[in-house]
Design goal:
globular; 17 helices; membrane; about 425 residues; single chain; about 50% helix; metal-binding; Immunoglobulin-like; peptide binding; two-stranded antiparallel ribbon
Amino acid sequence: MNYPVVKVTKDQINNKTKITQRRFLKNREAKDPMTYTSPFDYKWHIPFTFMTKTSIKSNITDADVVWLTEEEKVINSSYPTGNNWILGNVQQYGVYRVNYECENWDALIKQLNTDHKVFSAINRGQLINDAFGLAALQGMKIRIFTEAGQLKMSVALRTLDYLTAEEEYIPWRAAIAELGYISSMLKDTEIQAICLGQQIYMYGKNEKCRQWYVRSDIASLACSYGNTQCIEELRRLFKEYMDNDTRNPIDSGLKSTVYCTAVREGRETEWTFTYRMYKSAKAEAEKSRLLTSLACTQQPWILNKLLAMALDDREVRQQDAYKVFIDVGRNPVGRTLAWDFFRGRWNDIFEKYGSGSFSLNDIISGVTASFNTELQLQQLRDFGKSHANMGSGTRAFAQTIENTLANIRWMRENYVTIENWLNTQTIPI
């Protein structure tokens, strides 16, 4: 199960580079269900590859691999000092994360800001993804990783500073994924992230960012953060569609973002039109996009109506209904509504999904995914005590409590750091 993280440190005896492996877990305090056991005690044969500032590699061959088969190993490379750096897992040759000492992280980030193309697009995305993955570690108590056992969130955020110059998809996809999680954690807080949306959208309007998938991802995040220019452009596209529903003028790569933005920023008229298009759509992909967009509305009464419709096969197809709970739960306005509906209509939901279907697990996980307060944790525990029989959802509910505990710790440790960072991101529009 899982995969390893390799820590790169200085061997104090001979000033060489030492690599150490551990099992990677975001939450070290999570209870292992012991479903699977391994005679290898979570030690991997890791094909470690690396390059340094003085030995840059664009391609990796078998000859470049240093096999890490034990817990730790000293490799034949001097440990970098000053502005020099070492980068592990070149071109992501292996399936593992890499962590470094603070000085090396500083040197890598400086390189990104100076000339990011020294690293491949794959490795730029990897640096962002590894940094945020390591910053999210919870309950890290293993001695050898404790010095920088949980990478500071401030370091992870600094890996994004160079993005004004980034033109490739992979690093942007990594950044957007990490910012999406941060956004889900902060939606119910006092932090104003609108400035971040403004900055993201300005990056995305770079003339060289032409791929539809980059524009779609950037537009989605920027509009969700409240970027007015983004919202106006997407609502205009949707208005064209409403005025002539026989011809959809929206690029296929932008449909999900346009639909959701129009429903979120609009009124009942936009929601009703979207629902009508959902009912008449023939293509499965289009039907799915439209249904997901229905949960984007900011009107609580419409969200409650949609949740009720999800249990009526005449309104929402049975194979689609569980997605409604997940999508409403992801909506900041719908989080509490979905949770209240889930508890109030538990018997109906259990009757429909509790006989071994994966859908019940998905509903439980989706409705509670962004829970991050002590009140929500207590509500989960109370519900669990009063509903001992959850059928196929029992394990998912236990995992939900663990995830909520992890989210609470994440908020406690990172809220102020992210707030301070966001306050430095304002760009005049």
